[in-house]
Amino acid sequence: MYHNDKDKTAEGSADAYSLIQITRIGDDLNLMSAQNRSSFANMNTTYTSAATTEQYLDQILELERMSKQGESYSDSHGRYGWRNPVRGDTGPILTKLVRDSDPSRILEIGTGHGLSTLYLAQGLTAQGARIHTLEFDPEVAKSTQERMDRCAAPVEVIWGDANQTIPRLSGSFDLVFFDAQKNQYYNQLMLLIHHGLIGKGAMLVADNVTDRKIECQDFLDWFDQEAIPHEIIETECGLLVAHL
């Protein structure tokens, strides 16, 4: 059973609140799907400056033109993986989730070229809020950090295998977005809990939980086993949203 010893608030009321919140978010985002989520990226938002929003959108539009089929990659040890960007219906949801939950620290596991990172950054509202994002490929990590710097996004790209990098992180995260190897979602979640990087009230978001469900079944089962309120948003790939 998952427990957070650092937070001894009334669990019953907190769980009830989380369930209501998740249900509201799920209803809201499924409605957003029906009304074309992709248009959300073009809205004149009030939670970032007009200049910053324009800079983000320029980069987002550039990255959205890349193939959604993705690309293969390997590391110096000959390990291979496959990287593909979030689908067009998912990015705007990430922006909305961040805007509504107002996190100060976000952890993204699986940076790629930074498309989802920029969608997350678009939603930031808290003063001094920052995104830490983990990327397996050193060259991609370097080029993505340069992209973030060009548009003044409050993002730190950290190079390395996520399972080795997570234990070296410090502090706590208000929102975690899982979007790297699907068969590692569960292991990464356990590392985050074990090292005290997430606690009561943290939002967990995970992509590809429908189209690649078999790969992350142990991760999905954990939410049921621990009675963690969660919702799977009906995107092209399936997006899990949960509150601890």
Short description:
This protein is of the alpha/beta class. It is built from eight helices and nine strands.
Give an overview in words.
The chain is α/β, with parallel strands linked by helices. It has a single domain (11-243), classed as Vaccinia Virus protein VP39 (Rossmann fold, 3-Layer(aba) Sandwich). The chain is built from 8 helices and 9 strands. The protein has helices spanning 11-34, 50-64, 91-101, 115-122, 138-150, 162-165, 185-194, 217-225; strands at 71-74, 80-83, 105-109, 130-135, 155-159, 175-178, 203-207, 230-233, 239-243. The strands form 2 sheets. Strands 5-4-3-6-7-9-8 form a 7-stranded mixed sheet. The protein has a two-stranded antiparallel ribbon with strand order 1-2. Strand 6, helix 7 (185-194) and strand 7 (203-207) form a beta-alpha-beta unit. The longest helix is centred in the N-terminal third of the chain and has 24 residues, at 11-34. The two termini are 12 Å apart. The model is unreliable at 4-20 and 32-47 (pLDDT under 50).
